């Protein structure tokens, strides 16, 4: 039994690629033969995955007992697994791409594939649309890299964001927010810090000095940047991407929640969240978060405590333990995966 992960060849850091390599790494640690498969030149890979063997697409020889694992949205990449009768898996990291790349004359139910989901919202989406229950393989974050920081510079407020995620909406939020701050005559210096084209180490440095993370990404399967921000002592404000509801919980009572059932979690409100695309609600939440910081409101510490508790539940150690003790055991015992 061998495990082949199809890895899209990307030039820059990608959260989805990191998650794929992390799963491959865990399989290797569990004693399995693991390969990262590429079409053409190998793209970016994390340093800790250097021992995972790479193989070019056209040199792969699959057998019936092998696993061929492909992220959603790469429909053509399923062919080697399907043609060889290998165990073909679609690892769905973003619910929004599950159907977008599917040819119009094809249905998932007609294909001999199984699904893994990256979060409870994604698993719910697959079950609701396809009638298929899926195992959940959540991602993890490096708590040695993203460190909790209660004491941050209070002379100015730093709000960081990732402009590549819905950049037009991010600009709109910032423009409206700045106008409101100007109208209210708030003189405290407020900076917006861009996070773009940075290594994970440099992203961690930005989070370490930021007070707020403005999350503009959607759709999402289980977004990692908000978790990394929570681990770094940032208030998280913004959209959830649907998949963020795996861990995101409202700090303000009676605020927006999704229509599907949220799972029970061990933490309470950990951020200020808006319906995807609701720019004005994000602006109002951002305004409130800044107000709490300026007024040194004790609710800030409570949110940060809940946020850090959330981040700890997604540590690499927790991810590895869940993978080895739950998922792998089911795989070995031939239970449904």
TrEMBL record:
Keywords: Transferase. The keyword rRNA-binding does not apply. Signal peptide: none annotated. The keyword Ligase does not apply. Transmembrane segments: none annotated. GO terms for molecular function: glycosyltransferase activity. Pfam families: Glycos_transf_1. Residues 179-244 form the Glycosyl transferase family domain. It comes from the Bacteria. This is Glycosyl transferases group 1. It comes from Desulfonauticus submarinus.
